Amino acid sequence: MDISIHGSFLPQNDPEAALAFYRDLLGFEVRNDVGYDGMRWITVGPPGQPVSIVLHPPAVDPGITDEERRVITEMMAKGTYASILFSSDDLDGLFKHLADAGAEVIQEPTDQPYGLRDGAVRDPAGNLIRIQQRS
To answer: Residue 134 pLDDT > 90, yes or no?
Structure first.
């Protein structure tokens, strides 16, 4: 059986800020941008790689209650709702680029005892992005 990861979902509450971060700052390509009823689902991904991230409006699933919607909104505001893991062959250079552009750096690149160097930033919606570089 051959299984691969096609994509992942991250919430966004400001499509233009999401585009500025993922497209303009990280250099991802926009693969799809779908609007419906005043909302946008934006699919982005690194050039030359088949995996995608769908940046979606939060809490719009029909089965979500008002209380769940409130909790999701609060968790996004605190930066505790969603996360994703990236890797880079130049972690320090990437973090300098992100910091110079004003990204919210949560953890500067750090050597970990388990053989990785990693750091963390938040995207404009508060999603935690951990970025690692293997030693």
So the answer is: no
